[in-house]
Design brief:
Elements: H1 10-22, H2 34-44, H3 49-62, H4 66-71, H5 74-81, H6 88-103, H7 119-128, H8 139-148, H9 161-175, H10 194-197, H11 218-232, E1 234-236, H12 241-249, E2 254-256, E3 259-261
Antiparallel strand pairs: 1-3, 2-3
Helix pairs in contact: 1-9, 2-3, 2-6, 2-7, 5-11, 8-9, 11-12
This protein binds iron/sulfur cluster.
Iron/sulfur cluster binds at residues 144, 147-148, 175-176, 181-183, 187, 189-190, 193, 195-196, 201.
Length: 266
Amino acid sequence: MTDVASTCDPGVSRLIGWFRTDGADFPWRRTRDRYAVLVAEVQLQSTQVGRVVPYFEAWMTRWPTACDLAAASLGEVLAAWQGLGYPRRARNLHLAARRICDVGWPGAADLTDLPGVGPYTAAAIRCFADGAPVLPEDTNVARVLARRFPDGWPGTPQGLGWEVGQAFMDLGREWCTARAPRCDDGCPLRAGCPAASAGAVLERTPPRRRQSRFDGSMRQRRGVLLRELTAHGSVVADRDAAAAASLVADGLARVDGAVLVLPEHP
Ligand code: SF4
């Protein structure tokens, strides 16, 4: 284990020390395999950690490598995804696995060439699989940075990219939360925190994108249709024409005469 240099920023040093003692244990933290990290990161987008754990474990048992996933049909993949939401993620993950299986991983600078991999996920693969000193900046991390390091991140100590990245995830999820930050309830970064000292934590919170209502939404209607599609293989296309068109536009289904089928169905 790399020692935290005494010259390191005291806040960064405390963060690492805290994570080594109190960091959460998740199945994706027991691997440095790029494919496993990709699966976890895609599943964690917009889905809570606790819900992802059983999906991740089942997924990795069933498809332990990119080539195993590549060999599956889209219908199997979408069925396994049921309950995680935003099924376009599953389709992109499937496409990415096929690309990786066919031609290998792109270079570190080109990870965003993979379907569904944006700058955040590319940074997460670099950090959590490769151990690169890159800080994947999602909403939680951006919030911690804005509050605790408003003058900029002092830098990740050499060899500690993975620990720093994971520590930020835990801190943003459990302590430095959007609405109920636990500044004086044992936050490991309380000492020297400018936002807490100024009593201005909520004011120094970057605006969040509001999620629209789920009940009655197109997201819900798509989910209902896709659930039936993966369960039965086809569904009458005009049952919910708008939701059907939306699934087709996302490559999650295609119209075959009067019915909607999965894209890979003959
Ligand atoms: S002291 Fe408060 S604002 Fe500062 S890092 Fe901790 S939880 Fe966030």
